[in-house]
Amino acid sequence: MGVLGLAPFLQKICPEAIKTLPNRLKSLSGKTVVIDGTLITQRLHFAPMPHPYRHVLGWYRIMQELKECDVNAICVFDGMERSHAKGRETA
Fold first, then answer.
1. Domain XPG N-terminal spans what residues (predicted)?
2. 61-80, pLDDT tens digit by residue?
């Protein structure tokens, strides 16, 4: 799902497209956001946290915060296999 180099490109070409949310999710109350589920899961899984189920705990905390702020979420996950188009990318 992620696009390599997208954030730096957007910051350079159209910086107004990237916003910092001072109140994080509260400013999105009543709205729906789309979350890259694969990316978030990988980041949570490899986080420097000693809990064996840190990815599950992380998702729970994210969903809890979304619910508290009245933000709906659509989580999109990559397919079962890595896309051939991403074959040349490195982490």
1. 1-91
2. 999 999 999 999 999 988 77
Q: How many domains does the chain have?
A: 1
Q: By residue range, what is the domain housing residue 69?
A: 23-79
Q: Which residue has the tokens 């999109």?
A: 76
Q: Residue 37: name the closest of 51, 19, 55 by CA.
A: 55
Which residues partner with 72 through β-bridges?
Answer: 32
User: Beta-strand (E) ranges in 12-57?
Assistant: 32-36
Distance CA 4, CA 54 (A): 25
Euclidean distance between CA atoms 75 and 40, whole angstroms: 10
| pLDDT tens per residue, range 18-31 | 777 778 789 899 99
Distance of CA 6 to the CA centre of its chain: 14
